[in-house]
């Protein structure tokens, strides 16, 4: 079997770099439908080399490289503050990136593509745990609506090219991710990296307390990024008949989560323990909490043979080790 040429869009991001690690370690999980496992040729481009919001540049890249598969992990991402402050950038950049890549993949004959979305596609008050068929059944969370709409558009792009042109473009919806390569910006990061930085700085500075946004009762599910990468490769490598029988025609995407959630207050205490911070933890209810609960129903993916392996405590320790390398 010829080595597949696999383009990982966003290979420097947390998820994209984890997918590259996964592909480099296990290759094409085998045996595949076409024969034994093989080591892929991984294609990457930095933002300086290829602006994914530039349609002409993206088409020229696909014409030159002719990838067989695409993992679309490139995106503009951020936490509640960033999403709420920069909605125009979040909707514009994400729409442009996914539209350019998916259309170029189709135009240049890419056989398989995997689009990575987000759990924020579901309604703010969706029944818990959130099933795939909850999509478009209610109002989105206002603080990240722009990002969520862009991700929903990505799902529908894949669905539309599959329906009209017979492509095999799949979508996976990860829960909240964390781990090596995360963004630890003090304002624009997600909750786990933000808390890791805050508790670490409090420990170093002997601060008496750490303030957490919200009242601490909102519950979230967290998945270590290398588990997400393993799930992505697993879904990409499922034969089309198996995938279609378990996913289509009921839905056009598949959830990826660990099946457990935790209150933000409990999460903060767990992070403080990993870091060794012994001060007080306080809460600021004037700050937004986001949805009261976000737990994914990953039954469909579990039925297809994948389950998360890295627990939260182990994952937090690995994430803190990564932070210390910065």
Structure description:
The protein is an alpha/beta fold. The chain has one domain: Rossmann fold (3-Layer(aba) Sandwich). Helix content is 42%, strand content 16%. The protein has 11 helices and 12 strands. The strands form 3 sheets. The chain has a 6-stranded parallel β-sheet with strand order 2-1-3-4-5-9, with helices on both faces. α1 links the parallel β1 and β2. α6 crosses α11. The longest helix has 21 residues. About 2% of the residues have low confidence.
Low-confidence stretches: 29-34
CATH names the topology as Rossmann fold
Name of the CATH first level: Alpha Beta
What is the level-2 CATH architecture name? Answer: 3-Layer(aba) Sandwich
Q: Please, how many domains? A: 1
Helicity range: 40-55%
Secondary-structure element sequence?
EHEHEHHEHEEHEEHHEEHEEHH
Question: What would you call the shape?
Answer: globular
Q: CA-to-CA gap between the ends?
A: 41 Å
Helix count, per DSSP? 11
Give the C-alpha Rg: 20 Å
Family: Belongs to the NAD(P)-dependent epimerase/dehydratase family. Fucose synthase subfamily.
EC number: 1.1.1.271
Protein name: GDP-L-fucose synthase
Pfam families: Epimerase (PF01370)
Topology, element by element:
Blueprint: E1 5-9, H1 14-26, E2 41-43, H2 55-65, E3 69-72, H3 80-85, H4 87-107, E4 112-116, H5 145-165, E5 168-174, E6 176-178, H6 191-204, E7 209-213, E8 219-224, H7 225-237, H8 240-247, E9 254-256, E10 261-263, H9 264-275, E11 280-284, E12 293-294, H10 299-303, H11 312-324
Parallel strand pairs: 1-2, 1-3, 3-4, 4-5, 5-9, 6-8, 7-11, 8-12
Antiparallel strand pairs: 8-10
Helix pairs in contact: 1-7, 2-4, 4-5, 6-9, 6-11, 9-11
Pfam families: Epimerase
Function: Catalyzes the two-step NADP-dependent conversion of GDP-4-dehydro-6-deoxy-D-mannose to GDP-fucose, involving an epimerase and a reductase reaction.
Catalytic activity: GDP-beta-L-fucose + NADP(+) = GDP-4-dehydro-alpha-D-rhamnose + NADPH + H(+)
